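Task: complex structure prediction.
Instruction: return structure tokens for all chains below.
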Amino acid sequence: MIVILKHGVNQDMRQPLVDWLEAQKLKVHVSEGEFQTVLGLVGDTRQLDMDLVGSLDIVDSVKQVTDPFKCCNRKFHPADTVVEVGDVKIGGGHFAMIAGPCSVESEEQIVTVAKAVKASGAQLLRGGAFKPRTSPYDFQGLQATGLELLKIARQETGLPIVTEIMSIEHLDLFADVDVIQVGARNMQNFDLLRHLGQLRKPILLKRGLANTLKELLMSAEYIMAGGNEQVILCERGIRTFGDYTRNTLDLAAVPMLHQLTHLPVIVDPSHATGRAHLVEPMAMAAAACGADGLIIEVHNDPLHALCDGAQSLRPEQYDVLAEKVRRIREVSAL
Amino acid sequence: MIVILKHGVNQDMRQPLVDWLEAQKLKVHVSEGEFQTVLGLVGDTRQLDMDLVGSLDIVDSVKQVTDPFKCCNRKFHPADTVVEVGDVKIGGGHFAMIAGPCSVESEEQIVTVAKAVKASGAQLLRGGAFKPRTSPYDFQGLQATGLELLKIARQETGLPIVTEIMSIEHLDLFADVDVIQVGARNMQNFDLLRHLGQLRKPILLKRGLANTLKELLMSAEYIMAGGNEQVILCERGIRTFGDYTRNTLDLAAVPMLHQLTHLPVIVDPSHATGRAHLVEPMAMAAAACGADGLIIEVHNDPLHALCDGAQSLRPEQYDVLAEKVRRIREVSAL
Amino acid sequence: MIVILKHGVNQDMRQPLVDWLEAQKLKVHVSEGEFQTVLGLVGDTRQLDMDLVGSLDIVDSVKQVTDPFKCCNRKFHPADTVVEVGDVKIGGGHFAMIAGPCSVESEEQIVTVAKAVKASGAQLLRGGAFKPRTSPYDFQGLQATGLELLKIARQETGLPIVTEIMSIEHLDLFADVDVIQVGARNMQNFDLLRHLGQLRKPILLKRGLANTLKELLMSAEYIMAGGNEQVILCERGIRTFGDYTRNTLDLAAVPMLHQLTHLPVIVDPSHATGRAHLVEPMAMAAAACGADGLIIEVHNDPLHALCDGAQSLRPEQYDVLAEKVRRIREVSAL
Amino acid sequence: MIVILKHGVNQDMRQPLVDWLEAQKLKVHVSEGEFQTVLGLVGDTRQLDMDLVGSLDIVDSVKQVTDPFKCCNRKFHPADTVVEVGDVKIGGGHFAMIAGPCSVESEEQIVTVAKAVKASGAQLLRGGAFKPRTSPYDFQGLQATGLELLKIARQETGLPIVTEIMSIEHLDLFADVDVIQVGARNMQNFDLLRHLGQLRKPILLKRGLANTLKELLMSAEYIMAGGNEQVILCERGIRTFGDYTRNTLDLAAVPMLHQLTHLPVIVDPSHATGRAHLVEPMAMAAAACGADGLIIEVHNDPLHALCDGAQSLRPEQYDVLAEKVRRIREVSAL
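Output:
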């Protein structure tokens, strides 16, 4: 860690800080420049409160020179992690197509959609049983029943299932779920992450609405520090001033994350844009820039069927998309 | 709810949607304009998925005309809610000064700070026992021991205590805490909110880093829908492109929230700015625009003592601030 | 235009507004709902100050139902605009590769880079002569001399030139420039846009750092309203809380703009990311989601040559990128 | 300037960069840490392209240790600048009340409002003659006629006038204007700023919608570097995800700017919030946190008169606000 002192801070002014740092068992290298002095700290700086030191009157800024993430850091683990879900592989050149309805509504619905997306090449089935809703008065999902319906669809199609958890109270209910999803609003629910770190099954971790890539990686670290190394990261749009799409899909996060971490990175173009006609072009863009998979909403309910145009695609639209993504993948993977 | 159809959508194109809406037991008033048609929906539209309807190809946009928040809505409860914590009142003209260290570190520390802030006029003691940290490797707080130390400080000074909860697993531990704080990262941890709604004690709900005022009110609604009406809202800065302060304090939220809700609204200038020299001016600004209280970090630890300048104030700085805020309050409350 | 009145506003309360609107020569259709009343305005509402009406105490919100942009609106001009620069076509299925150094530095530099990018398939040469710099003390570009050097490079290679204008004082100097670029900081320099509308040559209009798509289209409208219909739009990243890249590339803007307007839309992955290793994946993503071209920085200066890694690519890196983009285009254009 | 190299960069890898830096006539101090190496650069680093160096593969980050702003930097000019407009002083303890209509509409309107705000204690009259409008089809202001009407109001009341310039073509027209305003959209119109630097009259410089404080100061520097030192800074709200107010008023910018610069800082609560009922509380908050003045919209037109509630205040509302601000000032200036 490097502490850059303010212009004009002399030895007398900095000595109390140097003494305090040395009392924390750190070696302090003082490097005096013409305009400023820099303190280089050697030793275990993880317990140091960077914000506290950085906010001192004599300090200009503090710079961490080693990454705070360890388990997910590519520097210490250069090879891509390949997450395995049954026969399906994600990462390290393996591209995963995950698809299904926003919410599980009935056995007929989930089985029909599961069969359709499987026919288009999807390898995993998604579907919400517990739904995070801004309003307590809105439909909260079929909950335990929804999980059972997902399992029926899995039995009918052989597709492993991906679904979101919202509380540590439900951990037992999720014992037989193949991939547990952590939603954007829970990305920094550290208590939930810690519990998921005790499991030995894949976790799909979505980036929060206003979280940096470093914060996303630190949340993955909460899971991995517990011994569960099967984490899939998911970019699903961030909150900006933009008003044409629900969120702003930050696709540059895909190659950037690939540089920083060995974990697979997938993209959710459905939630990122909130508009059906943008899902296909953004899915193609995600495949072109190196994403390891796509999670996409596909429906078959009557309102969509009659009017078209929602965030979810109809099965036949998904079929076209899947084919286009395959072609992009063939070219971009060269 | 109003559904505005796109320019050029004729009766044939809209009929399937009208039929579908009527099947949802809604009355649909069609109002044709020269350039567009508007559907006015009458009935219980709460179960309707606005996003779904809004994303249809023939729909320009959907507009909710009644607020989605009920319990906290000022329209249905014009009088200010006054939250009572022992003898202390917050809201409805009662201004609360809450102060204390970021983390509880030792009995000596918390008792010393508690006595100091009480002498300056603080009415509640804050202090973190469970700390939400971005990194799993950072200090996570003294946890249960920290809660015990807070209770000792309460006994010594008579100040009720405010401290943050991070998991429903800890609800029992918080049984004797006076005000339970929900941090910014948990503002949309709906499961936690629901459990807090079952309690009958004041909840201090902090606005999330990237949450709108409506989302904050809907989170309050999760608590109140469970029967717990003692909710205190807290503006603590939002995440923007700004880089001089840790967050951007959105003070206009204070009078705006006062218009929308009857709940008390307090301000946290310490976390919002992350810089000690900005805490006093922002505390004065918050008092001037009608906040119902201030939650401020005050410390007495050696690093601060020797160097000064952190986000936390020294007790003597807090004493000056408290006096200035009192004077602003006398003038602004006229 | 639709004016949605607040819940509880009765006829007496709304009559003064209705009278005032009718005095503005508008027909007012009143549609009373169970919970709210909507006023539909028919007539020329362009002169109406939406913000003013929307801010009235009795008004909930105001909704424009016709787009404020006319000349660039796809509704009134369904066919793609194809901008022609000499033999080069942009839009309507024609994909343009624009490349060159950030700043023009010397004849040798600009001619060398121009030859290299031409060999890789670039059709237009970019290079900054007048540089917008945050600091008045920083290098402001070679200015008029830079323009002359660009013309020499054009003569040597046949590539038309694209360069940025910063002042109406320089319009004469730009008479012989093939495509005039308006930078992000000048996107709402309405005076400059108006002058460019008097020309009859292509304008490359970059989206501002914090501007919505509608604002971008309205700025195009300033140019087109003057009779100059050859406008190329450019997405180059927006300002968000993100900190890993210089800006956040908003690629969903590409298909969204294609729906809204008939103008060509290109992407600048160099400025959007500020990191060389992200330029290639983002260029491929842009091609995959339907962009009509790419403007990319390519250099040959010593610092880059020795160290590599800057925002600009080396010619041999650009050559690889160009080939990959061609393959993506072949697939995505199917 | 400090260049922090990446972990693992050894001497061989860094030598080309060190050589190149020395060729730029800089002295390079190498400080090797256990985990990283830091290069301290001594000499004139202003011509160095920080972004370029920072983007090299071997570089972690670059840190400027001296501020890039000179003329407006408080370090080199500790005393507050007091801008004088006739008898009116702004800054250094002098608080300026600036008020008037959004647009100049007629002689009667501007004279009436001028007299009203003068009676309430306003010292300067504002009014738009040239209006920056997002749409080319919207009312663009009375332009030259508007300037003449402002001068009539000045003659009638003695109030100096403040009005916005949009083009260097109009500089002659503004020769007799007392304070020239640069709007948020032109904050980085460097050409305009440079021309204003040649004048010797006060410039009111508004912060751009998405500009940092450093960028605001660098724009002031463009004016001051030309010799015009009479610059007034203005916080008027920034663009965020927030949707209840037009912009997010960043009040912490006021004390932060006071620390960084000696220039006066005023606040525009009308444009920042876009809602009349928020103007008074935000004006009081601005006064409480140390602003040097307020620029506020006051109207007397019929729509406002009949309905109330717009961004602009009625004269009688402004009178109440002015009195409250005076009381806050008395307390906060203690």
